[in-house]
């Protein structure tokens, strides 16, 4: 789609120009148009944090564990997460792997191993923090885990900013109690994800497709994306912050101060199946499989399906 | 009738619909699938013949296949045994009661006609720790297990749960088959046996059971094939998780074929499933002795 995007100044409407297409670019060619950006953050209940005596947001791993400990001491469930919906747990694992310097490209190339110490350390951290999860995390779906948060049964939720609309929609009163901070200890790296539209290379009506796509990136749609959807717009559109959900401003802060972004771990691997294998291994480890044994399943998958191809 | 059977045109007209349907909907796709099972095929590019490569991977490398095979075998044994026993008991009880027979018959048969997808979701909600049965147990101070997520043991708890739900859903079908056969037994046989001093239990053992044996073989075959290709409840209750621990052959096939687009590999699983169905049907028909009596 590169030629279409660069024609008639369409690309200039995007925030960051060509940089807005980094996740849609492969081999120097643009394959899709992003419609919004969502960042994975830590949503927290400001009242619970206040009651637990947490005044500054955690910025490193130990800070996060300390906050969990204080929340637990105050009688709250520190963290709600879904292991029933594997990608939710995997998103946490992705952050931990990235903060330990795990290099997915090296793993894909076979120059690193899933049993390397940095992967083991990241996974051990996941096990360490899992003692602060809600009791039912193993069986809770993503929706149930999110509901635990907006129903004020847990103090923190690690989730993408797409959840803002769900949180505020289900419990409008919770909006002013909901804060957001960046996942700690990642050296300014944030997981970001876009919804995108792609066009068939063989379509007979490319102009109609492009015109349709432009509806999604024009000012009206992008304002709606921010003000109603609570998602970060991809264009330079000015939106009314007072109309937008309060959390969007916090997410924008997190996103704006990020040094760099990276994709969902399971979506950034050699194949969809590789991503699922990683997700499943993380759930298995959370459920009690020893760390090395769980990671061995990912290692075996890569040996049989990625490194020998 | 003889005239009709001599009319070749009539024979062709009557046989053609079933023949065409069987050929195009069943036989040709099965042959295609068997061929694809020897290929590396992703549906987007042409199939590439790789011989026994898929089968080699399936039986020597694929960890999920081992779990799926074990679970399918468990499901097969559990379903065949429990549906035989529960179906027979229900059929025997319902044929012996006069009041409320139709009511209970409908109650037991009802789950069979309901959508498995809807039932799967319903039971998934019931066993979800936050929503269902565990909340009821918590009222009595009991901490319920993770019904659909526990991974301890050789046959894990979620498999027992799903198998029990499947028994609940399909026992009505076995019951109906047995009831149909039992109601065909002449009452004079029972009357004669009672005159000779036979108890109800003995009449069941020596009259009912031998006479419904052909139906036992049929019901067992249906249950066995049904449980080998079992998919919907598992997919809706656990999607094969956690970590493939509740995968059966059909869910493994689905994931490989429709999630990862490995159609060649999925076809190999399908072929294994087909062969297993044939073997199981052969074994049941060979070992369940059927004598024909005039009733």
Notes on the structure:
The complex is a heterodimer of chains A (309) and B (295). With 309 residues, chain A is of the alpha+beta class. Chain A has a domain at 39-190 and 264-305: D-Maltodextrin-Binding Protein, domain 2 (3-Layer(aba) Sandwich). Chain A has 13 helices and nine strands. In chain A, strand 1 and strand 2 (29-30) form a beta hairpin. In chain A, helix 12 (272-286) runs antiparallel to helix 13. Chain A is globular and about 60 Å long. The mean pLDDT of chain A is 92. Chain B has a single domain (37-287), classed as MetI-like (MetI-like fold, Orthogonal Bundle), CATH 1.10.3720. In chain B, a hairpin with a 7-residue loop joins strand 1 (39-40) and strand 2. Chain B is globular and about 70 Å long. The two termini of chain B are 27 Å apart. Chains A and B meet through helix 12 and helix 13 of A and loops of B.
In short:
The complex is a heterodimer of chains A (309) and B (295). Chain A is α+β, with helices and mostly antiparallel strands and 309 residues long.
Helix content of chain A: 40-55%
> Helices and strands of chain B: which structural class?
mainly alpha
Low-confidence stretches of chain B: none
Order of helices and strands of chain A: HEEEHHEHHHHEHEEHHEHEHH
Treating each run of at least 4 consecutive H or I residues as one helix, how many helices of chain A?
Answer: 13
The name of the CATH superfamily of chain B reads MetI-like
The largest chain-to-chain contact, stated as pair and per-chain residue counts, equals: A-B, 25 and 22 residues
List the total number of helices of chain B: 14
């Amino acid at each position: 789609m590169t030629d279409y995007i660069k024609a008639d100044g369409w690309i200039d409407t995007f925030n960051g120009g060509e940089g807005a297409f980094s996740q849609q670019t492969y081999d120097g060619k643009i394959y899709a148009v992003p419609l919004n950006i969502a960042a994975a953050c830590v949503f927290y209940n400001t009242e619970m944090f206040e009651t637990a005596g947490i005044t500054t947001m955690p910025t490193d791993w130990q800070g996060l564990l300390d906050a969990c400990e204080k929340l637990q001491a105050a009688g709250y469930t520190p963290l709600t997460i879904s292991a029933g919906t594997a990608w939710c747990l995997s998103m946490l694992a992705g952050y931990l792997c990235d903060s330990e310097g795990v290099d997915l490209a090296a793993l894909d190339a076979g120059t690193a191993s899933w049993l390397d110490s940095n992967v083991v350390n990241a996974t051990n951290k996941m096990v360490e923090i899992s003692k602060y999860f809600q009791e039912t995390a193993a069986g809770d779906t993503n929706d149930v885990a999110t509901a635990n948060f907006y129903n004020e049964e847990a103090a923190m939720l690690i989730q993408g900013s797409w959840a803002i609309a769900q949180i505020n929609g289900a419990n409008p009163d919770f909006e002013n109690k909901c804060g957001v901070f960046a996942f700690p200890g990642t050296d300014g790296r944030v997981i970001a994800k876009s919804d995108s539209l792609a066009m068939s290379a063989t379509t007979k009506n490319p102009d109609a497709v492009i015109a349709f796509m432009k509806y999604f990136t024009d000012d009206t749609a992008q304002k709606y994306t921010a003000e109603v959807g609570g998602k970060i717009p991809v264009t330079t559109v000015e939106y009314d912050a007072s109309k937008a959900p309060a959390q969007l401003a916090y997410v924008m802060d997190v996103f704006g101060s990020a040094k760099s972004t990276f994709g969902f771990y399971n979506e950034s691997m050699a194949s969809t199946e590789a991503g699922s294998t990683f997700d499943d291994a993380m759930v298995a480890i959370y459920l009690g499989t020893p760390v090395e044994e769980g990671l061995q399943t990912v290692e075996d998958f890569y040996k049989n399906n990625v490194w020998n191809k | 009738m003889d005239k009709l059977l001599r009319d070749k045109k009539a024979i062709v007209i009557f046989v053609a619909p079933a023949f065409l349907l069987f050929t195009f909907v069943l036989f040709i796709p099965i042959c295609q699938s068997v061929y694809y099972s020897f290929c590396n095929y992703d549906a987007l590019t042409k199939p590439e013949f790789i011989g026994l490569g898929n089968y080699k991977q399936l039986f020597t490398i694929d960890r999920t296949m081992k779990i799926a095979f074990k679970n399918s075998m468990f499901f097969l044994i559990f379903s065949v045994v429990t549906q035989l026993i529960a179906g027979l008991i229900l059929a025997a009880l319902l044929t012996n009661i006069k009041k409320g027979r139709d009511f209970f018959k409908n109650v037991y048969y009802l789950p069979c006609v309901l959508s498995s997808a809807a039932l799967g979701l319903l039971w998934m909600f019931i066993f979800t720790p936050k929503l269902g049965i565990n909340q009821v147990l918590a009222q009595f101070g009991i901490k319920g297990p993770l019904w659909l997520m526990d991974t301890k043991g050789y046959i894990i708890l979620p498999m027992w749960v799903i198998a029990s739900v499947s028994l609940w859903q399909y026992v009505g079908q076995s019951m109906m088959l047995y009831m149909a056969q039992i109601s065909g037994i002449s009452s004079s046989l029972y009357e004669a046996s009672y005159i000779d001093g036979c108890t109800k239990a003995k009449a069941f053992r020596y009259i009912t059971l031998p006479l419904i044996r052909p139906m036992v073989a049929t019901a067992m075959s249906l249950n066995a094939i049904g449980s080998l290709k079992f998919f919907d409840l598992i997919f809706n209750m656990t999607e094969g998780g956690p970590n493939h621990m509740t995968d059966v052959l059909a869910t493994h096939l689905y994931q490989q074929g429709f999630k990862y687009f490995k159609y060649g590999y999925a076809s190999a699983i399908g072929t294994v499933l087909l062969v297993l169905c044939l073997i199981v049907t052969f074994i049941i028909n060979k070992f369940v002795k059927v004598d024909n009596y005039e009733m």
